[in-house]
Amino acid sequence: MTVTWEELGWERLAAGVGRCRLPGWDCTAGLVVGDGGALLVDAGSSLGEGVRLRTQAQWLAGHRVTHLALTHPHFDHVFGAAAFAGAEVYGAVGVDTVFAHERAELRADAVRNGLDQDAADEAIDALVHPHHQVSGEWTLDLDGGRQVLLANVGPAHTAHDLVVLVPAVASGDREVVFCGDLVEESGEPQAGPDAVPSHWPAALDRLLDLGGEDALYVPGHGAVVDAEFVRRQRDALATRFGVSG
């Protein structure tokens, strides 16, 4: 079955690169397609949502999702991960500890935010631990000249923040940076009990260094933004949390 990104409600950002905004929490999921592999960035808020993402990603890629990157361990980004059987799962160092020892709080947070209790229980029971923990930078080869960089830039929004940088491969395209919730466009960035506010501006400095001035920055929630938006949000967070420099 051949479909376009737009027909499935996805936003095409560059050749073989797109994202969708999921209902409920306006959470972003991203897709990067190579000749022999495909990377999904974040997995949605439930197993059902993960299954829908897997199905759509396979239609768009023409083959299964081979890699899954989890930008941080909040339920709306990770609870669908078990739907991607066989995929290599990547997360920042420490995510596996959260999944092993903070399951009750993950479930409670999901239910507090409106996820059905049965869906939360199902997701917790099937929670997938990352196979690969990223402590610095990790390059993935998706074949056909498509490489993707995973970078651990946290702690910031959480203690375990991972970003995904996708270099342009076609003339006229721009680099795409999937930011997770380090950047939010549809509301003020959320700082919960697992945030490390004193490090957040520095994480955005690192993000800007990696992506550069011309990249497309994809927030965890909201519309795609540019470097200037990220810089303004960085300065606002520094002011909000009293971080100098």
Q: Explain this structure to me?
A:
This protein is α/β, with parallel strands linked by helices and 245 residues long. The protein has one domain: Ribonuclease Z/Hydroxyacylglutathione hydrolase-like (Metallo-beta-lactamase, Chain A), CATH 3.60.15.10. The chain is 29% helix and 21% strand. It is built from seven helices and twelve strands. The strands form two sheets. The protein has a seven-stranded mixed β-sheet, with helices on one face. The chain has a five-stranded mixed β-sheet with strand order 8-9-10-11-12, covered by helices on one side. A hairpin with a 4-residue loop joins strand 3 (28-33) and strand 4. The mean pLDDT is 96.
Top keywords for this entry?
Metallo-beta-lactamase, Chain A, globular, about 240 residues, alpha/beta, single chain, 7 helices
SSE inventory with pairings:
Blueprint: E1 11-14, E2 17-21, E3 28-33, E4 38-41, H1 47-61, E5 67-69, H2 75-78, E6 88-92, H3 95-101, H4 103-112, H5 117-125, E7 132-134, E8 137-141, E9 147-152, E10 162-166, E11 176-178, H6 200-211, E12 216-218, H7 227-241
Parallel strand pairs: 4-5, 5-6, 6-7, 11-12
Antiparallel strand pairs: 1-2, 2-3, 3-4, 8-9, 9-10, 10-11
Distance between the termini: 52 Å
Which band does the percent of strand residues land in? 15-25%
Strand segment count: 12
- Report the order of strands and helices: EEEEHEHEHHHEEEEEHEH
Q: What structural class results from the helix and strand content? A: alpha/beta
Q: Compute the number of helices.
A: 7
CATH superfamily: Ribonuclease Z/Hydroxyacylglutathione hydrolase-like
Q: What is the total number of structural domains?
A: 1
What is the overall silhouette? globular
Overall pLDDT: 96
Radius of gyration: 17 Å
User: Biggest sheet: strands, sense, closure?
Assistant: 7 strands, mixed
Strand order in the sheet with the most strands: 1-2-3-4-5-6-7
Classify the oligomer: single chain
CATH topology: Metallo-beta-lactamase, Chain A
Helix proportion = 25-40%
Text of the CATH class: Alpha Beta
